[in-house]
Amino acid sequence: MDREWNDSQPIYRQLRDRVVAMILDGMLKEGDPLPSVRTVAAEYRVNPITVLKGYQQLVDEQLVETKRGRGMFINAGARDLLMQGERQKFLAEQWPRIHATIQRLGLTPEELLAATTSETSKVEEETPKP
After folding, report:
1. Deepest in the core among 28, 51, 103, 121, taking most CB within 10 A?
2. Quick one: pLDDT band at residue 7, thresholds 50, 70, 90?
3. Number of domains in the chain
4. Domain range spanning residue 89?
5. 26 and 60 part of one domain
6. Secondary structure of the chain in HEC code, one letter for each residue
């Protein structure tokens, strides 16, 4: 997780969002434990109550479950639930702006696909081969 916090939203919310990103990226999988509240608080120099509040949001969203005496674990189906919600959020909030920009610039689907293919090629070229 990134150690920098921004001032645009509360730290507990940023912590929650970072865990969500780790689930979506496959870094945290179903059944994996979350780092302990104390560990995260010490490592990122934040109040344990702040960490607990971020974790509690994940529990409230049914992405994480608490097992008394053992810790918090990623729930089965958490990634699928997140993907569904994040897709809807993207289509409702971000896509309209992106689509408007595409229209304003007069970009064609072919140009967009070519740009995507070009970026993929660059990443593949920069990735060291074993």
Report:
1. 51
2. confident
3. 2
4. 79-126
5. yes
6. CCCCCCCCCCHHHHHHHHHHHHHHCCCCCCCCECCCHHHHHHHHCCCHHHHHHHHHHHHHCCCEEEECCCEEEECCCHHHHHHHHHHHHHHHHHHHHHHHHHHHHCCCHHHHHHHHHHHHHHHHHHCCCC
Closest CA to 12 of 42, 33, 43, 41: 41
Between residues 126 and 96, which one has the greater pLDDT?
96
pLDDT in tens, 47-93: 999 999 999 999 999 999 999 999 999 999 999 999 999 899 999 99
Q: How confident is the model at residue 13 (pLDDT cuts 50, 70, 90)?
A: very high
Are residue 86 and residue 69 in the same domain, yes or no? no
68 and 92 in a single domain? The answer is: no
- Determine the angle formed by the axes of helices 48-60 and 37-44, rounding to 10 degrees: 130
Asked whether the predicted pLDDT for residue 99 surpasses 60, the reply is yes
Taking each helix axis as running N to C, give the angle between helix 48-60 and helix 11-24, from 0 to 180 degrees, rounded to the nearest 10.
50
